[in-house]
Design brief:
The protein has 388 residues and is of the alpha/beta class. It has 14 helices and eleven strands. Strands 3-2-4-7-1-8-11-10-9 form a nine-stranded mixed beta sheet, with helices on both faces. A two-stranded antiparallel ribbon has the order 5-6. α4 crosses α14. The protein binds coenzyme A (COA).
Length: 388
C-alpha cells in the first residue's frame, strides 16, 4: 500500500495540569503540529480525535467538533474511542483516508484530562475499558487486571519483580532529558522495590501515572508533500489493528496478547517488512509487564523471553533494540486518549533525528508503535520508516 507521510507532529508536555481542559490541550498540540509542518489549519480535510473518559472527567461528549474547533479546522471531525488505544485508532483512520485518496491532509491525535479527578475516580473511569458486566462487578481495576497477567506469566515462564523493575528503571532513565515527559527522574532498584505496593507484584513504579496531555499529527499524501515542499522524511508504511475478548476470563491464555500479534502481522505485511527489520520501538507499557507482553506479540522476542530483555540490556538506550526511548507510558506519562498519537510523535522525531534521544538510534530506518486498549482487547500497530 502507498505510504502516508508524517508532515508534522505536536505534543503538549505530559503531566499534571488539572486546570486545563482537553480542548485547550489539543489546541496546543495541533498548533505545534502546524508549526512543525509549516502548514496552517486551512489544509486539513478531516479530523480524527482520540479520547476515552471525557464524559467522566469533563461531562463532555460529542468531541469531534470540539476538537476541530480547538484546532481551527472546519471539516468533518469524529471522535474515536478504543480506550487507551483511542488515538492509535484515530491515526489509523487518518491513514486510511489518505491512502484511499479521499483526503490529502488529515489531522489526527487525541487528548485526555485525568488529574482533575481523584485517583479513585480516575480508576473508576478507566475501569470502563474492562468488561463492566463481569470484571467490574468482581471489583477489578487496571492495576489488578495487569497484575493477574504478570503473576500468571511468572508462573508459566519465570521472571520476578526485579525483571519488571529493570523495565521501569530503563524507561525512567530514557525520560530524564525529555522535556515533554511527566517524570524527568532517574530511579534505581531500591526505589522500585521499596515503593508502596499498588497491587502485587506491582509497586508504584510498575504503573503508568494519571496524566493530562494531548498529541496531534498531520498526515499527508506523498503528492501533497511534494507539491507543497513539506519536509516530511518519515512515512507510516504499514498499519494493523485487531481485537480480542474484552474480559480476561474469556481469553485462552492471559500471558499472551493475540490482538497485538495479529495487528503486528497485518502492519508488517502492509509495510513489506518482518520483525527482524525493526530498529526501534515505542510500546504500550501501561504496566511494566505490558512492555514484555508487547515485545513478544510484536515478534521481537519468543514467548517467555522478553521479561528479561531490559535486565540483559537489550532494550536499553545502548542496547541492540532500544524500546521506549521517549520514556514510555511509565515515565513520559499516559493521558490515555493522547498516547497512541504521542507514540507516533516521539518515534517520528527519533527517526528524523530531532529527538533528545535520537543519537541512540542515528542509523535507525524502521520503527514500530504498539498502542493497546484495556488489557489488549484492542491494539493498533504502525510501522514508520525513513523514506526521504
Ligand atoms: N510512577 C511514579 N510516580 C508516581 C506515579 C507513577 N505511576 N503515580 C504517582 N506518582 C508520584 C506522584 O508524582 C507523587 O509524587 P510527589 O509526592 O513527589 O508529588 C506521588 O507519587 C503520589 O502521587 P499520587 O497521585 O497521590 O499517587 P496515587 O497513589 O494516588 O496513585 C497510582 C498512584 C499508581 C495508583 C496511579 O498513578 C494509577 O492508578 N496509575 C495507573 C493508571 C492506569 O491504570 N492507567 C491505565 C492503564 S491501562
Amino acid at each position: 500500500m502507498s505510504d502516508v507521510r508524517v508532515a508534522g507532529v505536536g505534543m503538549t508536555p505530559f503531566g499534571k495540569s488539572p486546570e486545563r481542559t482537553a480542548r485547550d490541550l489539543f489546541a496546543e498540540a495541533a498548533g505545534k503540529a502546524y508549526d512543525d509542518a509549516e502548514l496552517g489549519p486551512d489544509v486539513v480535510e478531516e479530523v480524527f480525535f482520540g479520547n476515552f473518559m471525557g464524559e467522566f472527567a469533563e461531562t463532555q461528549g460529542h468531541q469531534g467538533p470540539m476538537a476541530a474547533k480547538a484546532a481551527g479546522v472546519t471539516a468533518p471531525a469524529t471522535r474515536v474511542d478504543s480506550a487507551c488505544a483511542s488515538s492509535g485508532a484515530a491515526v489509523r483512520m487518518g491513514i486510511e483516508r489518505v491512502r484511499s485518496g479521499q483526503a490529502d491532509v488529515v489531522l489526527v491525535g487525541g487528548a485526555e484530562r485525568m488529574t482533575n479527578l481523584s485517583t479513585a475516580d480516575g480508576t473508576e473511569a478507566l475501569g470502563a475499558a474492562a468488561d463492566a458486566l463481569w470484571e467490574l462487578r468482581a471489583g477489578i481495576t487496571f492495576p489488578g487486571a495487569y497484575s493477574l497477567m504478570a503473576n500468571r506469566y511468572f508462573h508459566e515462564y519465570g521472571g520476578d519483580r526485579e525483571d519488571l523493575a529493570h523495565i521501569a528503571i530503563k524507561n525512567h532513565a530514557n525520560a530524564v532529558n525529555n522535556d515533554l515527559a511527566q517524570f524527568n527522574k532517574a530511579i534505581d532498584m531500591d526505589d522500585v522495590l521499596d515503593a508502596p505496593t499498588v497491587c502485587s507484584p506491582f509497586g508504584l513504579f510498575d504503573c503508568s501515572p494519571m496524566s493530562d496531555g494531548a498529541s496531534a499529527i498531520l498526515l499527508a499524501s506523498p503528492e501533497f508533500v511534494e507539491e507543497h515542499g513539506v519536509d516530511a522524511p518519515v512515512a507510516i508504511t504499514g498499519t494493523g489493528q485487531d481485537s480480542d475478548n474484552l474480559a480476561l476470563h474469556d481469553r485462552d491464555d492471559v500471558t499472551k496478547t493475540p490482538a497485538a500479534k495479529r495487528a503486528a502481522e497485518q502492519a508488517y505485511a502492509d509495510a513489506g517488512i518482518t520483525s527482524d527489520d525493526i530498529d526501534v520501538a515505542e510500546v504500550h507499557d501501561c504496566f511494566t509487564i505490558a512492555e514484555a507482553l508487547a515485545l513478544e506479540s510484536l515478534g521481537l522476542y519468543e514467548h517467555g523471553e522478553a521479561i528479561g530483555a531490559a535486565r540483559r540490556g537489550e532494550t536499553t538506550i545502548d542496547g541492540e533494540l532500544p524500546v521506549n526511548l521517549s520514556g514510555g507510558l511509565k515515565a513520559k506519562g499516559h493521558p490515555v486518549g493522547a498516547t497512541g498519537g504521542a507514540q507516533i510523535s516521539e518515534l517520528t522525531k527519533l527517526l528524523r533525528g530531532d529527538h533528545v534521544n535520537s543519537d541512540a538510534v542515528s542509523d535507525a530506518e524502521v520503527g514500530v508503535t504498539h498502542n493497546a486498549g484495556g488489557t489488549v482487547a484492542s491494539c493498533v500497530v504502525n510501522v514508520l520508516e525513513v523514506v526521504a
